[in-house]
Every structure is written in C-alpha cells, then in structure tokens.
Amino acid sequence: MVDTDGTLVSEYKKTFGRNIHHATSDDQIRMRTDQSLYDELEQRDLLKRSRIFSGFGIHLVQDGELGLAMFNSTPKFLAPGRHTFLSPFNHFLGTVEISSKLIALGNIQIVTVYQDEIGLSLRNGETILLDPGRYILTAPHIFERSTPANAQYIELEDTESGPFETNSPTFLFDKNNGFQSVQLQVRELDELKVNTRDGVTITAKGLITYRIHDPRAAFMTVQDIHGAVKRAAEATLTSLFLNAAIDEIAPPVPQKVNDDLIQMKHDDGTENFNQHIRDAFLHDFSHKVNKWGIELQDLNIEKLEFDNSVKDLLRKRAQARVETATSLANMRSQTNIAMQQAEREKKQAQIQAETNAFVIRTKADADFYAAKQHAEAAKLLQEVPLSSQLELKRLDVEMVKATGDRTTFMPMNMRIGDIGMTDKESGKMYFASTSVSQL
Fold it and tell me: How do the domains of the chain map onto residue ranges?
C-alpha cells in the first residue's frame, strides 16, 4: 500500500512503531505499590497538608478524599484536613474521591488502569501503553483513554497516512480495524493434504493456541502476526508429517495380554502419535515464534484421515498383524509347554540319578564295612593261634554238615589224651569224640 507522496504505509507503520512503548518500567510516571497516593504526591512536592488546628479552616477535605487547589497558578493536591487560603492567588477548586479513575488538576493527571484494562497515553507524539496500575502524568504526557483488555480492538490516533489502527495485539497497520487484545488466541489451521515419508497421502487439520507476550517485539518483527503464525504452523505441521512414515501413524502392532489373548489398541496408537506430533510441534515451533513475541500454548490434531485404498491396506495389514501375533502367541505357548515338560523330565532324571547314587553309595559303604570286619577278623585269627584253629574247626564242621560225614579233623599241633585234648601252648583241655583221626 502506497501513500499519496509515494511513501509505503508500512514505512509509516515502522516509524510510528518505534515510538510505541510500555510504561511498565517507567518509574517516573508509575506509582509504587508499597505506598499511598498521599505519600507519592508528597514526594513529588504536589501535596499540601493542613497546618491549622482541628476545627479551624474554611475548606474541609475528608479522609478518603483529595483536595484540588491552585497556588499561584501551580496545581496542588490537599491532604485530608481543613485548609484556609489567605492569598488571593490561591484557590480551592473542590474535592474528589481518592479512588477515582482519573483525577485531573492543571497539567497533572492521576490515572488508574484496572487489572482487566489497557491504558493509552501520548507524550510528544509518542504512544505509550499503560499496563494495570496507577500513574501520575504531567503534560505533555497526557492520558487518552482506557479499554477492557478483552476487547477485540483499541483505536489509536491518526498518522500522516491515515488512522493508525491494528488487527492484532502487535500494533499492526489496518485502516479498518484497531488494536486487538493480548488475550489467549485459538486459531484453526487449514486442512492439510500431505504425503508421508513413504508416499501415503493423509489429510490433517489442527488448532493452535497461543498468546502474544511481547507486542513490541512482534510489531517490529512480523507484518501480520496472526497470518504469519498460522502459515508457519501449517508449514511446521506439514514438515512433521512429511518426515513420518505410515507405520508411525497407522494402528500399532497388537499387544499380547497373555498367551491366549491378543489385544488391539487403535485409539492408544492414535493418541500416542498425536502426542508425538504435538511434542515435536511445540518444540520446533515454540523456538521459532518466541522470537516474534509469541508464547505457544498447545496444538490439537482435530482430523487425521487416510484415502480409502490406504484404509483397506491398513485393515488388511492389521488383520495380518493379528494373525501373526496369534501364531507367535501359539508358538510361544507350545514352546513354554515343551520347556515345562523338559524341565519335569530333567527333575525326574535328577531324582532318579540321586536315588541310584544313594543306593550305590549305601552298598559301597556296606561292602566297605564288611571288608573291614573281615580284615579285622583275619588279623585277629593271625594274632591268636586258638582262634585260627577254631576257625578251621568251624570250617570242618560246615564241611561235615554239608557232606553228612561225621569224621572230625583235628589240628596237627593237638595231642589226644585219654580223657580229652590238651593245647600245647595254652594248656587248655578239650573233649573229643570217640572217632578221631590225625592229619
């Protein structure tokens, strides 16, 4: 758009925009919140307190009020009390409530901007926005008006190219509108048709929620903030879908609840993908628009559709996944059964082996004990001659029993007497049968 003298309207906008400021950090006009209006006016030498006794004086200023007076053409505010004017150059103008929204006296204005309002003031052609709070303005800084912060538009003053108005909270030029509020914005994105990374066409539509936290930065950076945010959001969302595969968007692989049941979770898969897109969008887009004075709040995917051919393909693929998952579950079940059977056989074999080992060990212990006893017996037979002879006798007796022969065999070192047998070494006597033969 070009003005009559050939100057671009956007250049007027930039020139005018450089003179737009916030008064938030201007301590010269903004009152401190930790002191009263009386103290603030007294510090600025704008307040006159009563110095006469109670009950005297002509003009009374009650508590909660502020007196207005002119002292030799100089504006003075009067504190509560009685005041008397002795000079003809001093005049009492009246009283106002201290909580009044606008108190004007001469070239001084006391302005209160409420919490849900935005104030507009001018100083030497410079436009100054007043945030909620109380201000003391001195000409040439004058207060114009205030408007609700949730109002759609706030008008500004005229410029050389015409009315300076805006269609956004970032002071952008629009001849037909005005200042838009800095409240939370919800914008609907256009319907997007995007090809995924593997060439599948999808249709997506979303909503973005944001607010403008730095109007001056947005004004000096972007020409049309809402249009720029919308176009940039669509471009970012398109880029995210272009880098996504259909496998990431389609329903997930069935999840196994147990060995017999296969559970499909289509909704959870879609929610997971939407959450993935949302997180990636907020991460990438927030970094970009933060430089524009934009605070991104949220992204909501309202619509995500596929072509009919893709739907059939996805349905068949989901069915194949179910069958595959079922086969895997059955194979896993059979494998578990085989493993359990092998484990049982292993335990049985281990028990049988332990039993056989115990039997063998017990028999070996018994054989060892018997051999030990035999060895001890043999040693005893060697050490005691009579024992060996008795052992031989026992063998003879067993032989006799086995053969039925009544013949008795006697050792060679035994002597037969008339009445018995006498051992040479021990001298003990033994009786013998009548039928005896000597070896």
Answer: 9-151, 186-306, 308-376, 385-438
Q: Say if residues 120 and 156 touch (Cβ distance below 8 Å).
A: yes
- Please name the residue that has the structure tokens 């879908």: 241
pLDDT digits (tens, 9 = 90+) for 202-259: 888 888 888 877 766 666 677 777 888 888 888 888 888 888 777 677 655 445 444 4
Q: Quickly name the fold that domain 186-306 has.
A: Tetrahydropterin Synthase; Chain A (3.30.479)
Closest among 238, 172, 242 to 13, alpha carbons compared: 172
Tokens of 62: 């009650």
User: What was the pLDDT predicted at 211?
Assistant: 83
Handedness of CA 379, 384, 388, 390 (dihedral sign): negative
Tell which residue, 48, 46, 108, has the closest CA to residue 84. 48
Backbone angles phi, psi at 238, to 5 degrees: -60, -45
Token look-up 């049968």 returns 433
Q: Residue 68's pLDDT band (boundaries 50, 70, 90)?
A: very high
Strand 133-138 versus strand 108-113 pairing type: antiparallel
The secondary structure of 180-209 as a DSSP string is PP-S-EEEEPPPEEEE-TTS-EEEEEEEEE
Distant-in-sequence, close-in-space partners of 201: CB < 8 Å, separation ≥ 6: 193, 194, 195, 306, 307, 310
At residue 176, the 3 state secondary structure works out as coil
